[in-house]
Structure formats: structure tokens, C-alpha cells
Amino acid sequence: MSQQAGYSPSFKRPAEIMRMRRKRARSDAGVFSSPSGQDSTGSTGQSESSPASVRPFSPGPFFHTQNRSGGGIKRRNPFANIENTYSPKKKLLIYNDDGNAEAADRINRSTEKDGDEDMSTKTECQGVLSFSARLTEVEKQQRPTKKCLTFSEDDSLFEEEEEDVKSPLLKSPQAIAPASIAPPVCTEYPADWSLKTRLLFTSPLSLLWAEHPKAQEEALGLNQHCRAHFSTLPHSLQDPKSCSELRCAFQQSLVYWQHPSLPWISLFPRINAERSFTGKSTPWAQDAALQQSLMSEWSVSLSSLYSLLKAKLCPYFYLCSYQFTVLFRAAGLGGSSSISALISPTTRGLREAMKAEGIEFSLPLVEERRKSREPQSLTVQQGEEEEQREKAQECSELKEGEDCQAGDEGENNAFNDDDDGSFSWLKEMGVQDKIKKPDNITIQLRKEGHAVALDHKPESVVCVEGSHTFTLINFLINCKSLVAAAGSQAGLPPTLLAPVAFRGAAVHTLKARSVNVKSQVGSTYQNISSLEITGPILPSSLHNITTLLRPAQKGNFSANLYTHAPTAVMNTHTTKEQGAGGSVDLSGCGLHPSSIQQLQQPSSLGKTALTYINMNNYNYTWKN
Fold it and tell me: Is residue 329 a contact partner of residue 340, using CB atoms and an 8 Å limit?
């Protein structure tokens, strides 16, 4: 088998063959000439065959010199040998000097090394048939088609694929753009109202400029934050490490305000954070007077924050208790024209207490699910109305109105009994004394089971809007269950977080440090530049940091976002006017104008949060 012309059994390294092929393409010689007794791969046994009888594709028919037009003879395919056979899954297009595409089949099926001539003849016949069949496919593929460039898995190579193939890897306008229209440039990602605990930025360019700021740069960044001054940076920076304005602006974006402030205890997160409080000194746990003092100062800080929010001097703030988190947003943010508050997660007891205080609220996710279940057809709605009218007429004709009312409640509530606790049917069966009847409390719990099922779930998020947010502030100040009565967090008021200063707050900065991250490139791992930021990361802080990385990294970086799980549902739509936030003036709230513009838009994430952001050539893509 190794002595047959047109095969190369000793072929081992495709890279060497490709280098030789490129050298031949650059040479001026137009005629292929093989050395006597040895081919290009060093295999012997080729001296008997002339260049005219060399197969251009193996297995395939012989092409003779007199039948070919052009100045040279097409050499054989160096990738084909006797140990490979035809595979319909893998196909290679080779372009000759004339620009015509010809198909060469990569042969995958292995045969025996010492096979006889009949097996080789059969393989050649199969190659002739497959080659002729492939020529028709090549002609179809030569038709003009629009193609686009996409990134490969290691983000270092471009792959060419037809635009008909839909691969929405990341959620962005580019992923859903029509093939005939150029995808628009997405310069912003959607607003994310969830709190982040960690950010990990990676970039092909160095991120060391963000570490170890000078004392003057740190002081200037804090001063700019307090005065709400923002510096304008160029579109691209040649040397970010030597740019003092960039480093000052980065320190400015790390600042946030918090109350209370206890240096020896981390006060965020508060939900399921008993481990961070265990073993720490808590002198207020057994001192009622100290607890009262802490709550008094906390009430003043909360009232100050709401006043700033109402005056549009504070864009938003968070209240983090050991059971739930509350997000207060100023009018004009999140697409709402009034002040709004989102509480998550909630329990039936908390919702009942809010109702008792006269606080009107809605359950956005429950209402959205209810609307999706409603029939869309008008005829179906009319049929339901007729059925309700017939039931009402039947109930009016009954003698016992209470039984009719109980029957209606049983249809509306799946947990209700048919006739409101009546067990007369047991007497008819004669087993009334053998079965224990449920008491009134059990019946009531079954009726309200659907409300209790929402507790501690994302669907339990509560939305309060308008003037009821002021009532909610008073409710939170006077709510005794807001502070834990036992456990490691006993007597400690909730944590207040805001992007601007307020009464009783202490200034804090997020921690930024460089870490070593390895990325897989092919079969090896390479170190890439990375930056890790930890702490309670507010939405405006995330946007400011990404805005600074845009010019510093020349529009190429990615970020992994780690969300505080209970706050992911904060991206839920509110029920009132959507899209009316742009008419409210928030220029004095202390945020960058671009951050205000982003946060004014209604969030499109629903009850999810961003987990990954990628910027390539100043264009955003993201995952949630």
C-alpha cells in the first residue's frame, strides 16, 4: 500500500506540510517537480510515476497534463494517505492558482496497513464517486453569500460563518439583528438595580494602573465625589498609569456612604450572614439603653435619606435588614414618575402588617403571571362572563344563601372546601364519628395557603409607589420585627447604603486589588491582567467603573458580576407609568450624567441580574 502513487503514509506533521506549501506558492516556478525517488514528504517509491500522473486529490482520479489548462500541474493533496478514507462530516476547500475552488475530502476511516490491492482499488473507486459528488456541492457553495466574522472560543481567532446561522451567545442587539442590516453599536448595557458583592475585570491590557493610588490622588478623588465634580477623559488613553485624572476618577467611583459603621463587623450582606457576626463583640446585645440609642440615630439617618430622595438630591438608597432588603428610588428613575420602593423577600406577616398601616402595595410578578394566564380571546372572555351570570342567577334562586356563597368561594380558592366547613356528607355515609374534623384554624390556613406559598421567594417582591412610600418609612421606623430579637444580629439596626452623603453616614471605599487569573488559550493557560473589586457595589458605582475602563483599556475588557441573590429581583418593572422618568430633572442628585441617563430607563432584566459584561471594540454584550 505504501508503494502506490499519490499517497503519503509517512505524513505526521500538518504544520510542516503547510509551510512547504506556502513556500511553493511564493516561488516563481509554475511547474511542479518532484525529486527522483522521494516526494515532498520524504516517502520513497514515487520515482516510477511521472508528475502528469499525480493525483491532485487522493483518493481521486488522475489528472493528466494535456487535459489541464494553465501553466502548471496541480500537485496532489499532502493531507491524504491510504490510512484515511472518505468522511462526509469533514470537508476541506482548496483554492488553486486560478481561483477555482475544489473539494478535498479528509479521510477518517482507518484501514489495515498491509491490505491487498483489491482494498486499495475499492477505496479509489469510492474516492472517484465522492469527488464527483463533492464538485456539485462546491459549485453551490461558490454562489455569493453574505458572511460575518465571529469570535472563536479563545477570543483570539476569527471564524467565518454565514449570517443565516443564529447563535445568540450574548444578549445584545447584535445577537438579534437581521442579517441584511448592520448590527447597531451598543454603547450601554441595561440598568441593573441589584447589589453586587464582587466584580472581576479582565483585559488584554494591563490593569495595574488602578492599584496603589497616591495619597494626593485618593484625596482628590474623595473631594471630587463630595463636590459631585466629574472629569472628562479622552476616548482612548495611551498610558493609563501615568494619567493622574484617570486614577483620581477611579478612586471617586469607589466611594459610598453607610450607616451604621462598625469597623470590626462587616454590615453587608445582612441576610444569612450569621457567620460574619459570630464571635464578634456585640456590646448592644444585652444593653437595652444602647439598643435604643442605636435605633434613635438610625431613625434620624433614614429620615434624612428620604428627605434627600424627595428633594432629588439623592438618587436611591438601600435598607438591608436581616430578613429583607428595601430599595428606595427617586422620582424619574426606573421609568417611574414618582418615588418607588421595592421590598424583597417578604412574608405574609409583613404584608399583613403593611396593610394594617394603610400602605397600598402591589405584587408585580404575581400580577404579571396573572395577566399572562388571562385568555386573550374576546369570545372566551364573553363566555366566562355569561357563565358567571348564570351562576349568580342560580345562586339567587337557592334558599340558602350561605351555601351559595361558600360554593363561589370554593371555586375561587383551590384550598377552600365546598361549603365552608360543612361535613354533612359524612353523615350520609355514616362515618361522621370515625373521621376527625379539622378545626377553624386549619381551615383558615388552607384558605390562605396560596399567600403563604410566596414567602421568601422572588415572587414575593412588593412595590410601593407615590405618597405611600412616606408611610412605609414611618412603618419601618416603628416596626419592632425590623431588628432581630435573638441571634448574632440581635439589637443591630439595618444597614443603610447610599451613593451620596447623608446625616450620620460614614464614608467607605470599595476594595480594589489585582489578582492573577489564567485563561485557557488552546491547550495552554496564560496569565491575563485582572482587577478584583469587593464590597457593597451600588448600580452607579458599577456604571462609573465600566465608564472609566472604556478609555483606559481601549474598549476591550470583560467583567464577571457576583450578585447579592435577594436583590436580583429589584429589576422588576413597577406598575405605574413606564418611560416617564426622562422628564424629571435629576442633575443635582450627585451622579454622573451618563449614569443618570442609564438609571432612568426601565430595566429590561425582569427578575434576573447581570452576571457577565463584555466590551469589544467599544461595543457591549452581556449575560444575565
Answer: yes
Q: What is the pLDDT of residue 443?
A: 67
What pLDDT was estimated at residue 578?
53
**Residue 299 is assigned to a structural domain of this protein:** no
pLDDT at 298 over 50: yes
pLDDT tens digits, 538-584: 999 999 999 999 999 999 999 999 999 999 999 998 765 555 555 78
CA distance 149 to 160: 5
What is the 3-class SS of 14-51, one letter each residue? HHHHHHHHHHHHHCCCCCCCCCCCCCCCCCCCCCCCCH
**Nine cell digits for residue 135:** 464538485
Q: What sign for the dihedral angle of Cα 162, 167, 172, 178?
A: positive
Torsion over CA: 397, 401, 407, 409 (sign): positive
Quick check: is 417 in a domain?
no
Share of the chain above pLDDT 90, in %: 42
Half-sphere exposure of 158 (CA within 13 A, CB side): 5
Q: What pairs with residue 343 in β-bridges? A: 326, 462
Domain range holding 527? 196-255+509-623
Contacts of 524 (CB under 8 A, 6+ apart): none
Q: Is the dihedral of CA 310, 312, 316, 322 positive or negative?
A: negative
Instruction: Tell me the pLDDT tens digit for each residue of 589-621.
Output: 999 999 999 999 998 898 899 999 999 999 999
Assess if residue 425 is contained within a domain.
Answer: no
Joined grid coordinates for residue 388: 358567571
Q: Where are the alpha helices (DSSP H) in 115-242?
A: 117-141, 215-227
| Same domain for 607 and 524 | yes
Query: Does residue 124 sit in the same domain as residue 221?
Result: no
CA angle 403, 406, 409 (to 5 degrees): 155
**Residue range 414-428: mean pLDDT, rounded:** 54
What is the rounded CA–CA span in Å between residue 184 and residue 614? 16
Residue 160 has pLDDT above 60, yes or no: no
Mean pLDDT of the chain: 74
Number of separate domains in the chain: 2
CB 586 within 8 A of CB 333: yes
Residue 517 CB burial class (10 angstroms; 0-12, 13-18, ≥19): middle
Q: What is the pLDDT of residue 386?
A: 60
Q: Are 511 and 533 in contact (CB under 8 A)?
A: yes
Regarding whether 128 and 24 lie in a shared domain, the answer is yes
- For residue 343 the three cell numbers come to 421590598
Distance CA(497)–CA(270), nearest Å, equals 12
Residue 590 lies in a domain: yes
More confident residue, 540 or 123: 540
H or E element, residue 392: helix 378-397
Lowest mean pLDDT among 141-155, 318-332, 391-405: 141-155
